[in-house]
Write a structure and sequence with these properties.
125 residues; mainly alpha; 7 helices
Length: 125
């Protein structure tokens, strides 16, 4: 079964290291007791890097470099890159529902040509 690529968030890129990724990739090859220790160690290192990152405010501001999407569909599309499985399917369903609602809204907005003229106003004068 082919595995889908899941993008790393900006925060993950800033607090993670190549060594940390390698360590996490190696965890399944160790016995359960060592897996537990290495998993906690890898996450503790990321937590330490996160605390260091936010103790230096200018560096933390780099997370805000990407402007927030203006439309809900854009936001959902961006979020979709960071998840898989049922969460990804749910985001797809929400995105499809928003598209359908938008299409219905467009179909129900009368154009200026379709709007019937009020002839009664002319007759009253």
């Amino acid at each position: 079964m082919e595995q889908e690529y899941i993008a790393q968030t900006t925060l993950d890129q800033m607090v993670g290291t190549d060594q940390g990724q390698l360590l996490k990739a190696l965890i399944p090859y160790f016995p359960p007791r060592q897996q537990q220790f290495l998993s906690v160690f890898a996450k503790a290192k990321e937590l330490s890097n996160t605390l260091t990152l936010f103790s230096n405010p200018p560096a933390a501001m780099r997370i805000q470099a990407a402007s927030a999407p203006a439309q809900p569909m854009e936001l959902l599309s961006d979020l979709r890159r960071y998840c898989f499985g049922n969460t990804r399917k749910t985001l797809d369903q929400i995105n499809n529902m928003i598209a359908m609602v938008e299409m219905l809204r467009i179909m129900n907005v009368p154009s200026s040509q379709d709007t019937p003229k009020d002839n009664c106003e002319e007759e009253r004068q």
